[in-house]
Amino acid sequence: MPIVLKTRREIEMMRRTGALGCDILGKMREAAKPGITTAELDELARVELERAGAIALSKNYPTYKAGEGFPGHTCISVNEEVVHGIPGHRQLQNGDVVTLDLALSLNDYCADTATTIGIGEIPPELQKLLDVTRETLALAIQNIRPDRKWSDIARLMQWHVEHNGFSVVREFVGHGIGRTMHEEPKVPNFVSQEQLRGDFKLRAGMTLAVEPMVVMGRRDVALLDDQWTVVTEDRTHAAHFEHTIAVTQNGVDVLTDGRMPFVL
């Protein structure tokens, strides 16, 4: 499928969605204290989405279980869970690390954003994991500009992670986004022969969800029996940060940083 370039108006519509996503993620982050359940955090997001007239793109998303869809409005992944954690009765504990991942649509335009936070006091090695993952996303954003190959960006991301002693998950990558949550192209956080075969040049008007997923141990992952939650195979901790961005003539524009649209 071709890569769909967006007009200025479409990008501003996505920014409005992204601003809502940023606000909801912020409220979830503030509420994420010891004792709260992941289901309660998900319910907070549901209420805010409903109030704004937005749609949770995770809800009822098809899963590997025949005839079933994802039950949550958000994905909430704890400790060794890398992505796609199902909200439930699990209570957050002091020392946990938790990824809050929200994909939403407002007025038919999508945004996707995620952050990983520590609950209460976390050890220095976990704080480093969060810091390096956040820095990896920032490094990508700082280096995005038209006519640059994505592999150049991915190589920088992979180097930063591995230089700091961590690993990049390879089974899941970023993606194009716009009127639907998943569009072309695939946006990996690493370089491989397969990735190079799908390499692409950045062009003004591209809108991408950039989302490094970093783990403390080996990069191998496994799927739990719920056929949705992805965990590290060695059960070491994981972190995940994500922004929806637009490539511009001059570089990059982050659409999920909370800024409201300029024009509609």
Q: Can you give keywords for this protein?
A:
5-stranded antiparallel sheet, 4-stranded antiparallel sheet, 264 residues, Creatine Amidinohydrolase, 15 strands, alpha+beta
Round the Cα radius of gyration to an integer and report it: 17 Å
Largest sheet: 5 strands, antiparallel
Poorly predicted runs are none
Summing up helix and strand content along with how strands pair, one would put the structural category as alpha+beta
Q: What is the beta-strand fraction?
A: 15-25%
N-end to C-end Cα span: 28 Å
| Arithmetic mean of pLDDT | 95
Biggest sheet strand line-up: 8-7-9-14-15
What number of domains? 1
Level-2 CATH architecture: Alpha-Beta Complex
CATH superfamily: Creatinase/methionine aminopeptidase superfamily
**Number of strand segments:** 15
Q: Quickly name the level 1 CATH class.
A: Alpha Beta
Per-chain topology:
Elements: H1 8-31, H2 38-52, E1 55-56, E2 75-78, E3 81-83, E4 97-106, E5 109-118, H3 124-143, H4 150-163, E6 167-168, E7 174-176, E8 183-187, H5 193-197, E9 207-210, E10 213-215, E11 221-223, E12 230-232, E13 238-240, E14 243-247, E15 252-254
Antiparallel strand pairs: 1-4, 2-4, 3-12, 4-5, 6-10, 7-8, 7-9, 9-14, 10-13, 11-12, 14-15
